[in-house]
């Protein structure tokens, strides 16, 4: 049975480690991420973006797959199924589909009041159903059409206002971006993180854009209250490299090498290995139900 994210993140705050939230895109990704969590005996948040949900024909398909695979693998660690960067409507769809956790990204709404209003309503709905909810203040940067934005640092006062609504975790922009970090990236803004932490207390904080952040900055962010770290691009990169190597090394020309199960196997193994590596880096290995 899947669980929501609240207890595992509260445990992470108390234990000074972070739980990895790894994005899934299809069956192979889900399989690899779950095996990594079981192998390392780590709590796991497996999350799906709106785009990945559409690619997999809908949130009900994603939910059915994750629930069925959890049972089929006889997992012994807690697993939460989380919506990543969801709109208000997407959150409602995922709640109906059987997700155990959702993220409402209100950072792109027309104003902060809309973010507050929608967050408050979703907190009420989620908590009435035993579902955890993540909110966001300060948009996370990223690359689009070849242009990289640094994102905006969150206002600590706005973070407190959202936290006071009763959310279970909070994503706040601190100079982090989605995708690969450019060479001129200036790093995480720890002064902003400290100010946010001072306002929200023990509320678990979420670091988006976990790919490519140096290990020392990850460790410092965890020390300052980050309890959930999102990883997506890094898994995409190792998957692509492994599958490309299979093709480059003539795997397709071998007997039945065109079988998709054979072609995708190296990529799946690469995802599992990278997920295990990140779990150990975040400090959640062997934490299981603790």
Structure, described:
This protein is an alpha/beta fold. The chain has eleven helices and ten strands. It has helices at residues 6-15, 27-40, 50-55, 59-72, 88-97, 112-128, 156-163, 190-200, 215-223, 233-248, 260-282; strands at 19-23, 44-49, 79-86, 101-104, 132-137, 142-144, 147-149, 169-172, 205-207, 226-231. Helix 2 crosses helix 4 (59-72), helix 4 crosses helix 5 and helix 5 (88-97) packs parallel to helix 6. The chain is globular. Residues 143-150 have low confidence and may be disordered.
How is this structure best summarized?
The chain has eleven helices and ten strands. The chain is α/β, with parallel strands linked by helices and 290 residues long. Helix 9 links the parallel strand 9 and strand 10.
Task: Give short descriptive properties of this protein.
10 strands; 290 residues; two-stranded antiparallel ribbon; alpha/beta; eight-stranded parallel β-barrel
